[in-house]
Amino acid sequence: MMRIILALVFLLFLDFEPSLTRGGIDIIYSNLKRIYNHGIKNETSWRKLVSLCDDFGPRLSGSENLENALDWIESVLKTEGFDSVWSEEVLVPKWVRIYEDCELIYPRRKVLPVMAFGGSVSTPSNGIFAEVLVVKSFDELLQKKELAKGKIVVYNPPYEGYGKTVQYRWLGAIRAAEVGAIAALCRPISPLSLNNPHTGVMSYNDTVPKIPFASLTEEDVLLLQRFQDRGITPKIYLKIETRHDGLFPSRNLIAQINGSVLPNEIIAFGGHLDSWDVGSGAHDDAGGCIITWESLRLIKELNIKPKRTLRLVFWVNEENGLAGGEKYAELHKSEPHTLLLEFDVGVFPPKGIGFTGPDTTWTKVKSFEKYIQDFYPNVVVFKGGGGVDISPMMREGYPGASISTDDGGKYFWFHHSHKDTPDKIDLKNLNDCINLTVMFIYLCSELL
Ligand SMILES: [Zn+2]
């Protein structure tokens, strides 16, 4: 009988964590409660978000704005009592948007808001005046390739989710050049346009000429489509001036609380501080930077001593190069990382935690759900997580995670446009995302 009772007691403990005592579980729950109660009243988060977005503006790699924002964050980090704060040099590409102008000339005159995609070359200095060919897909472009020569190709792909539709931005200049077009334009990769173009990274290759490539608004692309459908071939004027300045020395910025039991085991987490050169990169990714920054600060403020080392990283150059993520992996791949987490999905109500890694770790991470659901009952832990900046470390075999949010499709309304400003962010969502992030990294620190 005694053996059965002992076995039952053992199973009871096993239901929590095999290595934990009841007292250990109580401490974890009590710290989660402290995090939650403190976090929902956090006002520093909003102040930091507004300062980052409003005082420094957009933060494209190679820009003074990005360097000034890095300086400011570093100076604040040094007042927050972390064990260490340091920078690591990263060479980032410097591309500069100088001038852009687009106008419908025929069949009537109309100014067309335009925004070059990141990396686009310039038009000739007096611009391009040409007929347009509107296509809804690369297949249609191939079918009509005889009509494309010497024209400006305008892509009008229906929005079928970002992951699928973004190929038109990434490959559009190459495909248009392959059929002899002299420039290309595209509707925004967004489910909703309010007469706004959206930028983003694009690509060239060495086999065809590099032609200028830019976003129009959805409304104007649909206007051009309707003209073409009625047998009218619109003519437009396009002038784009940009500059490639080679490589520029920037840096990843890092702050750390050393682990109290396993200091050599690292939980690294962060967002990308660079943004596109329009709006102020509030959702993408000032929000992710502030959420992960405040996560580390709350651990410190609540005097929680994490078992493992907690390392906050502000990566640079996610938008147009990944130099920050690559540099981090180059410098740190030999340090044991228990897990890396990136927040880069926009600041909306948190709905889950995605995880990619070995099954043994997955089982433990999945068990965190029961702790988190006491505070956020709808949050689930699911398979499939990661982020662009942590992808080089994940390639080395380290587990990766990301928070997912319930954006109702809205993230891509704002993304990479003048609309991405702090007024699109809600303080409650910001603090809930911080709470979930800090709870998760704390659980990883104590229980993985
Ligand atoms: Zn991003």
Describe the model:
This protein is α/β, with parallel strands linked by helices and 448 residues long. The chain has two domains: 255 residues, 3-Layer(aba) Sandwich (Aminopeptidase); 147 residues, Glucose Oxidase, domain 1. 38% of the residues lie in helices and 25% in strands. It contains 16 helices and 14 strands. Strands 1, 2, 3, 4, 5, 6, 7, 8, 9, 10, 11, 12, 13 and 14 form a 14-stranded mixed sheet that branches. A hairpin with a 3-residue loop joins strand 1 and strand 2. The chain is elongated and about 75 Å long. The chain starts with a helix and ends with a helix. The N terminus is likely disordered. The site of zinc ion has 5 residues, from helix 10.
List keywords for this structure.
448 residues, alpha/beta, Aminopeptidase, Glucose Oxidase, domain 1, 2 domains, 14-stranded mixed beta sheet, 16 helices, binds zinc ion
CATH topology-level name of the largest domain: Aminopeptidase
Largest sheet descriptor = 14 strands, mixed
Structural class: alpha/beta
Question: Which CATH top level class of the largest domain fits?
Answer: Alpha Beta
Terminal residue distance: 34 Å
Write out the CATH superfamily name of the largest domain. Zn peptidases
CATH architectural category of the largest domain: 3-Layer(aba) Sandwich
The total beta strand count reads: 14
Number of domains: 2
Using the CA coordinates, give the radius of gyration. 25 Å
Number of helices: 16
- Give the proportion of residues in helices: 25-40%
Bound molecules: zinc ion
What are the secondary-structure elements, in order, as H or E?
HHHHEEEEHHEHHEEHEEHEHEEHHEHEHH
Strand content: 15-25%
Mean pLDDT: 95
Poorly predicted runs: 1-16
